[in-house]
Structures are given as C-alpha cells and as structure tokens.
Amino acid sequence: MAMDRRDFLKIAGLTALLGIGGKTGFELLAPGAAEAALKDIPLTAGKKWGMALDVLLLDEEVMDACVEACHNHNNVPHIGNPKEEIKWIWKETYDHAFPGQENEYLAEAFKKKNFLLLCNHCTNPPCCRVCPTKATWKREDGIVMMDMHRCIGCRFCMAACPYGARSFNWGDPRKAPKELNPDFPTNREFPMRSMGVVEKCTFCAERLAKGLFPACVEAAAKVKPNALIFGDLDDPQSEVRGALRKRYSIRRKPELGTGPNIFYMI
Amino acid sequence: MYDGGKIITGLVIGVGLLLFPVFYNAGKAAKAPERVLTEKAKAAQKCVEPISFMKTEHMKMLDEWRQQVVRDDVRYYKSTSGKEYYKGLQTTCLDCHSNKSKFCDQCHDYVGVDPYCWDCHIEPKENQ
Questions:
Q1: Which of B63, B119, B121 to mutate to test the interface with A (most CBs of A within 10 A)?
Q2: What are the sequence ranges of the domains in chain B?
C-alpha cells in the first residue's frame, strides 16, 4: 500500500490522541478499577468475614458441638490445668463475656446462660499492633491470622487482646495428658503447635479457602440451623447482614474501639 | 627441661587420644543413604518438579510455600510441567512420601541437619 508522509503523520497523530483519550476516559469512568485489577490479592479482596451468633438458639448442646468440632479440626489439646488452657472457642457466663453490662436484675435466662466466645477478628486489632514480628496480622479479608512459624512467644498479643482469645503453649501439645486426649492429634491433615507459641481461632482459613464454612459453623448447623451465621459483613446481601438487620445484637467490649466482628443477637 | 620425659610421654598420649577417632574411623566413611520411595511415589513417577531440582531446592520451595500459604493465602502451586498442586507438607508431600523415616530423616541425619518442621506438622503413621 502506498502512503505518503502526510497521511502517515495524520494517522499516527490520531492514533496517539485516541490512545491517550481512551485511557483517561476509562480511568474517569471507573476510578480505582485499574488499581484494583493490579492489586492481585487472592480470593480475599473486598471481604470482611464476621459472624452472628443467635443467643436464643445457642443451648449447651450446640455450644458443645461447636467446641468439639473446632478442637478436633484444629488439633487443640485439652491440658486439664485451667492456667494452661488452650482456647479457640469456649463457653463463658454473661458477666464474664460482657463485663460492665451485668446487673442484679438481669433476666433469669441470661444469669445462668453460657455464651460462646471466640476471637472477635477485630477491625482494629490491638494484638496485631503490638506483635514485634508480625506473626499475627490482619488479612485483607478481615481474618486476624497467626503465623506460628514466626511467633517468638513474647505474649504481647495476649496482653493486648481484651477478650482473652489468645493462648500460650506452655508445653508441647504432644505431651498433653493422654487420658484427656485419647486420639490427639485428631486431624492429621492439619498441623498442631509447638511449645512457646501463641495460638488462636483463625476462622478456619484453610477451610474458607476450599469454600467450606468454619468447623464450628458447620457443626452448629447440624444441631441447630442458623445458630451461627457466618458471612461477609461487607456484602449487604449476605446472610449475616440480613440477620443483623432483623435482630438487635451486642458485641463484646465495643467501647474499647477494637471493632469486634462477632455479634451476639439477643 | 625439667621432667622432659613425663611431658613428652603426656604429649604423645594426649595427641594420640585426640587423633584416635581419626585413625579409628579411617576408611570407614558412612555411605550416603539411598533414596527410598514408597509404592505410591514410584507409581507417580514424577514429583512436583524434576528430581534434580527437588534434591537441591526442596527446602527453599517448602519455605516459599509456607510463606505463600500462611501469609498470602496462595494455596495452589503451578508446576513447570503445568500441573497444579495443593501446597501442603502434610497433605501433598507426605501423602506420597509417607515413609518419612527413610525418605526424610535418613538423609537429614547424614548431612547433619535438623529441620523443625515436625515440631508442629504431624508425621505420617508408618507401618513398620
């Protein structure tokens, strides 16, 4: 094809203009879209995992099922000595779970009732701020995660957590009393911990990655559906947001500004 | 030199004792252990990456895997052969190489390394 110099320059100029204009237009129309596409965060982007617990449905049977499922899945040993207890998910009375909110005229049902407690996966987690090695950090999807490989066992995070959701391994979990843990480790697909590291609930991150609910949620659903509702708090259409819209809920120690993401629907 | 005889005798005995292990073990170098594969590993024929790579780089690969899985939640590994693998020491590596005492420990003992993977990760039940 024959093309003189004048035509070539016209086409080249027009193409350059279109190119610049096109890109700018795209960015004006969808601000941040290009950055978001570049920010390659696997499966977790834009999510904020949270849980709503229906206190009225949570009886001892459901709670025990949750605790057992969690401990079996995550190889949490029973030490026997309460001072060395490893807690991922546990039961606690109202005055211990919600200190400052108890009063002597509290409804009878709540006075004796146990509540199911776990890590609150706070929006502003104090444990992550104090960790000197970044062994615990806030993931993009809201999970407060633990890296046992990096934990040096300084226990700053335990001092920082206002919910007592973190436990220290005073001894080797393998040496936990055999009579309390006849078939420990119960889950051979999952590791356990070593002496000298801190551990906590991880919302079963490895199950979420496979598209499964956390072990406690799955166990609760078998006993009483909807007792534990797990989902994305950022998504207005999610089941957990729907439940929270309908029912009044309280959180543990919200006045501390940690932004707990575990809601108790009362 | 006072007491020269005693000193020299002492020296000879001392040096002798010091060098005793060298002479005692001379020519008896421990043989490098043979790689032992399970039936499952033999049947699979190839590992995640070529064997030469795995022999020299498996520790670096495991370190990268643990970093990516725990910290970045990137749980699948695309091999150079194109196949995808779930990154897991217990669930993927030791699924084939379930003979940990032969496949891992033997060689680690020989080269004198003591990885602390098994402080937390659960070793396979070996039927021996």
A1: B119
A2: 1-30, 39-119
Pairwise CA distance, residues B57 & B80, whole Å: 14
- The answer to whether A92 and A112 are in contact (CB under 8 A) is no
- pTM for the model stands at 0.78
Q: Is the peptide bond before B33 cis (omega within 30 degrees of 0)?
A: no
Q: For residue B66, list chain A residues with Cβ-Cβ distance below 8 A.
A: 149
Per-residue pLDDT of chain B in tens (128 residues, 90 and over written 9): 789 999 999 999 999 999 999 988 888 877 888 888 888 888 888 899 999 999 999 999 999 999 999 998 899 999 998 899 999 999 999 988 999 888 999 999 999 999 999 999 998 887 64
CB-neighbour burial class of residue A12 (10 A; exposed 0-12, middle 13-18, buried 19+):
exposed
Q: What is the interface pTM, i.e. ipTM, of the complex? A: 0.77
Q: Which of A72, A86, A149, A189 is best to mutate for the B interface (most B CBs within 10 A)?
A: A149
